[in-house]
Amino acid sequence: MRNFLTLEDVTREEIFQIFKLAKRLKRKPWGNQLKDKIFALLFFKPSTRTRVSFEAGIKQLGGEAIYLDYATTQLARGESVEDAARTLERYVNCIIARVYEHKVLERMAKVANIPIINALSNLEHPCQILSDLFTIQEHFGKFDGLKLTYVGDGGNNIAHSLLLGCSKIGLNLTISCPKQYAPNPTILQKSLQHSLITGTKIDVLSDPHKAVKDSDIIYTDVWVSMGMEKEVKKRLETLQPYQVNESLVKHANPSFIFMHCLPYEGREVIPDIIYGPHSIVWQQAENRLHVGKALLVFLMKF
To answer: What residues are labeled active site?
Structure first.
């Protein structure tokens, strides 16, 4: 039995195995690899892409998905996440959980005897980044020699999973962010340890124009995530210099691609770029389906 709470839960070789399977499933989307398997989607936070990609993918491979909104479960009345996990494992083969606090996933994984998948937490978003790395490989045909620059909030779940994922597979990564929104020190240290093995260059810079220089990929995310509504004014003021606009991207390679995990809220990147010729955000969104399916098939083997 294997959990997928973080990109630390899979090896570099396993990541490439998942990519190989995703490529096959993209060519042939329908099958029975998940036949007789039932998946609970336990979502504390609302979702579009994560929910639909998992539900559609499970159905395409012959499985069944049960969506559980936190507000309509006994969790909302005070049931512990441990008891919820102990109960659900009697009914389903896997729990795909989208939560606020990463510790909730760890608490579930500690007591459950079925796989727990992190469909988003405040600390990491491993399913998203697994899919994004597949999209980069699909676009460029390689990782070696490429540079990805993430611009914005360097302490959010996307930045953290990029640090772990890029350092593991050998994609050079620069995080550009204000000092008060720097990456989690423990995750940064783990990524630096991986980079020593893969020869990956990992940087954290405050100057976005310097960071974007010679980048092949520019990535950003929303500035105000769910649960941060009280910080809106402060975040908008602090992160404004990190907006992806024409002034910023002129420092990147002319053939750069732009990535964003969506939804787009109109602040972090200008419309001409997210809807322009350099953007591959819709390919990103599509690949959540294929890589999600590959991850489920991979995990069900254990």
So the answer is: 98, 125, 128, 221, 261, 288
Domain boundaries 128-284, corresponding CATH code: 3.40.50.1370
Backbone angles phi, psi at 259, to 5 degrees: -130, 145
- Check if the beta carbon of residue 142 is closer than 8 Å to that of residue 19: no
Q: What's residue 233's pLDDT?
A: 87
- H/E stretch holding 177: none
In sign, the C-alpha dihedral spanning 129, 135, 137, 140 is negative
pTM over 0.85, yes/no: yes
Strands in the chain per DSSP E = 38-43, 64-69, 94-98, 116-118, 147-151, 172-176, 202-205, 217-220, 257-260
Give the per-residue pLDDT at 227.
Answer: 66
Q: What is the dihedral of CA 256, 29, 263, 146, to 10 degrees?
A: -20
Q: Where are the domains of the chain?
A: 7-124+289-299, 128-284
pLDDT at 146: 98
**What are the distances in angstroms from CA 13 to CA 10, 146, 287?**
8, 19, 20
Do 128-284 and 7-124+289-299 fall under one CATH topology?
yes
- 56 close to 289: Cβ distance less than 8 angstroms: yes
Q: Decide which of 3.90.640.20, 3.40.50.300, 1.10.10.10, 3.40.50.1370 is the CATH code for 7-124+289-299.
A: 3.40.50.1370
Asked if 283 contacts 139 with a C-beta cutoff of 8 angstroms, the reply is: yes
Q: What is the mean pLDDT of each run of 10 residues along the chain (302 residues)?
A: 97 98 98 98 96 98 98 96 98 98 98 98 98 98 98 98 98 97 98 98 98 98 79 91 98 98 95 98 98 98 93
